[in-house]
Structures
1.
Amino acid sequence: MSTTLSPILSVERLRVKYDLFEAVFDVSFEVWPGEAVCLLGSNGAGKTTSLRAILGALPIAGGRVCFLGDDTSGKSPGAMTMRGMIYVPEGRELFPSLTVLENLELGAITREARARTRASLELACELFPILAERRMQLAGTLSGGQQQMLAIARGLMGLPRLLMLDEPSLGLAPVVVEQVYAALGRIVRSGTPIILVEQHVHQALELCQRGYVLEGGRTVQQGSTAELAGSDRLRSAYLGVN
Ligand SMILES: Nc1ncnc2c1ncn2[C@@H]1O[C@H](COP(=O)(O)OP(=O)(O)O)[C@@H](O)[C@H]1O
Ligand SMILES: [Mg+2]
């Protein structure tokens, strides 16, 4: 008997509007088990809008989103998160006046995740030792890089079946970006599927197996990251190579 694999997430011809403005009108992509997939594209291409609609935080005006085999239409972000779709937003959205440890504990949202809090905390502190050192410090007093690490670690506390990361390197110093990406590499190798939105195209292409390029609310290109890295269009648009 052959094993039939199905995608963790499939997005078909997604359309999302802000009032009359159609920010996303033809975005399609898939994530398969164990895959790291990047969504690339310049500012305003529709990456964040797509992720927020997939999570249920914005209404879908057209197309179809399936997560773990189920159509997600009409589901709330809370329901999607409980199913294991964990979104680490741009800007992180931590609880600044709670401690690092409290923020982490709040990431364990399902009963299963709560039962595994201890093991998840150990993993988080192994990936990001600075969080263990700072566990009693208020999240709002951490540096930008430490806050990003905390946001990712808090996401892991929810035992993601799909981890969606929106610009995890935004505003971070190069050395911190490297630390964050080293941890992301370990997360990917552990088998957690991820979707990565990133303007640091080099890092994204190195981390992920496949990628999609969005432009003006549409998917305009897709392929293995090796193919994308060699594509003239991507090279001239995003990698500064002519
Ligand atoms: N809350 C909003 N209301 C109206 N337009 C928005 C809103 N958020 C984003 N947009 C517009 O939607 C488009 C896509 O934005 P966004 O998804 O944030 O792009 P990206 O994440 O790729 O930079 C842009 O033209 C942006 O100006
Ligand atoms: Mg964005």
2.
Amino acid sequence: MKLSMFPLLVVVVSLAIPAGAAERQMMQSRVPADKLAEARALTSPLPSSPEIVEQGKALYNGKGACFNCHGKDGDGNGPVAAQLNPSPRNFQYHGFWIHRTEGEIFWVIKNGSVGTSMVGFGGQLTDEEIWSIIQYERGFADEHGPA
Ligand code: HEC
């Protein structure tokens, strides 16, 4: 290797490390270990349909107010997102949907992710409402193609 390339290589490697760590952190399930088997076994009782997607959309932007943090387009960049650490999930990112079962996603929406601003919505939303929101949220990744 020519010595002149060395600084470039250092920059590339140091940029790659934090991105990889963030990716690993995101991939890890938010369901506590002792609830994981139970959460993974959960499956949606709802058929896939445009009506359910519409219902999920109304809840996402209405009663659930999910858009405040996750953004109207599901990009994780809602009006209050900048103040939050960790950041709200970006639903447009395909990797997220690949690394979770729908049961784990349901469990976190219902019970929350401990230590984050993602509180559980079990008191406000019925199970069916949560499943319909998941059907809507999944569309954010489909619309934006593989990332
Ligand atoms: C006050 C801000 C806020 C609101 C409102 C909010 N979320 Fe979140 N959400 C977060 C944050 C922050 C995370 C990331 C938590 C983490 O990294 O563990 C998150 C993570 C998630 C995840 C990913 C869980 C996982 O397994 O990684 C899902 C799904 C989710 N939210 C759905 C919803 C839905 C559905 C609503 C509305 C009913 C909602 N959120 C409302 C802040 C919010």
